[in-house]
Amino acid sequence: MDTTDQSQASKNRKPKRSIIDCDIHAGSFSDEVLTYLPRIYREQIKTFGWRLPSQNAMYLNGTGGGAKQDENFPKEGGSASYLKYFQTNFLDKHNIEYGILTGTGSYSIQTIPDADYAAAVCSAYNDYGIDKLLSQDERIKGSILIPKQDPILSAKEIDRVGSNPDMVQVIVANGAEKPYGNRFYNPIYEACVRNNLPFAIHVSMEGIGTNPAPTGAGQVSHYIEYRAARAQIMATHLASFIFEGVFEKFPTLKVVMIEAGTLWIAPLLWRLDQDWKALRSQTPWVKEPPSEYYRKHFRVTSQPIEMPHKPTMFLPMFEAINADTNLMFATDFPHWDFDSPTLSLPKLDEELWDRIFYQNAAELYGLPQRRNQ
Amino acid sequence: MDTTDQSQASKNRKPKRSIIDCDIHAGSFSDEVLTYLPRIYREQIKTFGWRLPSQNAMYLNGTGGGAKQDENFPKEGGSASYLKYFQTNFLDKHNIEYGILTGTGSYSIQTIPDADYAAAVCSAYNDYGIDKLLSQDERIKGSILIPKQDPILSAKEIDRVGSNPDMVQVIVANGAEKPYGNRFYNPIYEACVRNNLPFAIHVSMEGIGTNPAPTGAGQVSHYIEYRAARAQIMATHLASFIFEGVFEKFPTLKVVMIEAGTLWIAPLLWRLDQDWKALRSQTPWVKEPPSEYYRKHFRVTSQPIEMPHKPTMFLPMFEAINADTNLMFATDFPHWDFDSPTLSLPKLDEELWDRIFYQNAAELYGLPQRRNQ
């Protein structure tokens, strides 16, 4: 076997035990989604287009369209044909017991000024996702896309589809006009808690549409800088949730941070714990060290996992971010920076592996244990 | 000796060998600075005030005015009286061979729209600093405040005072309308290189005056969140310098990052090195891994040093940020979050201690070796 074959074989290796993948993207088929919209919006879309601001209009990506080059998605047959490809070439191939779709539509809709239209499109995406994907395969779980421009309409959408057991969380883009701890969003968290659903933040839409520039120093020029800025905005949200006292108001709320990296969380918590000791009189409602709020209320997905220069730093950094309870594996299929379940993480002992690849997500989302133990 | 006395004694302990402190703030006395300004601006100030937007108008600080509560600065006698206090109660007390003043005026002047007035005030601050402080004690070194609103005027100011051997760097606030790698600033870097001066960025003015909101998700509500946002903006500048190719244009330029923390640099470099491998075709002028540009071109001051939850993480994290060559000790005197030279850092071996507390700064700023070895 030459090295190319070896590398191919190792790429195709399945995890021995089934896993939960916490960040998967499904293509949405516009002509199918359209049928879920009221006639007025169908006509507007026909005349003016979808009104979806996009990263591609401002920045490059890793590949054209952002997808892996070694996938051959079917060009015809719509969602039914897509689903078949997805089942065989992804869920079966990687031994995925549950795959969490992080939205069944575009986050762009959360960054347009017209909140009523955004609400209608979110409902259409959610209904489309339930009909065409979630109800077709019990392995596929979904995230409720909300018109976050309007927290009251968002709460209505959460109440509308939140009782569907296949919808396991509420999802928003990382790009935001205000940090997510701001009281503006409270109706969303009330609805999350009422429906027992985590609130998930997925990198996307930073600096796009209604959002401000992606950094506190304005626009950056290149995609690689833009990717680095995403972690910063996620850090802003993390601190905002804690210091605005969101978890004092909503003690059962859980927040999932998706695709913004993981290891930066350690120095951030060191900084926040230290500053909290010195400055806690300014935010007296924050009762515990910030790292405790993180441990209890946040979960973080692994992809794109950072590679410390010294491999010996991996496990101490994992410990510093409470990987055993807070880290959940994700591939980001089908995107270009896909993390393979068998190749992307360092060698872990069996217990830690099982926490990261299965149990942390199963507990958070209330998913049953493996069918084949 | 009771514990209070012990703690007082340990607070007052001097470093055995003299040190270089890379972040010191001197009070500026408005009535004295005024005499260095043209008459038109003296009259405008008399009528309208100084036009200095301030953090205090938006956020709290650690103490009123931001200073340590155990200092008793003289209330009368202006800069001469201040200088005496500063020499006895700071430079002598802490065995400081050189202390780098990070500006002799307010960074606020860099965030007002009127660039001509900003240029005049920067010149006045610089001249005041040279006359009243730098020329009075050979231990005190200064930083050139520039009207960064206008890079051409900034270059003129650097050329005007840059040949004074007591001015050891050019300084700007971290808050910025554009990341500092942007080509807008090139005339400043040309002047830095021409005068053999490092370019220093000191946290301040994020979200204030002409600057955008301090995060990519808009305004934050509390000072502790604001402090966390500062590191994010510094991270934006770091990535911007590298990916805009500033060091390809100015191969001898050095950049000093002041008061934004240190340990967050490690996961940022891991992320950037990894992404650079995947995305380098998009920025082909970036020839080496980002961590190499960091090692060669950046220096970072220690205060406020992060405390890892596990003390055993300190040295591996120091190694990950190249502390032996890139970290320079700073107290941030007289601010409330002052880091003591004898108490704030973990126990270091003698060689590493000497690099961080003396040699790295001596090499960067071209300062002579200790008088008493």
UniProtKB/TrEMBL annotation, chains A, B:
Signal peptide bounds: none
InterPro entries in the record: ACMSD, Amidohydro-rel, Metal_Hydrolase
Any Pfam family the entry gives: Amidohydro_2
Keywords: Lyase
Positions of the Amidohydrolase-related domain: 107-367
Taxonomic superkingdom: Bacteria
UniProt name for this protein: Amidohydrolase family protein
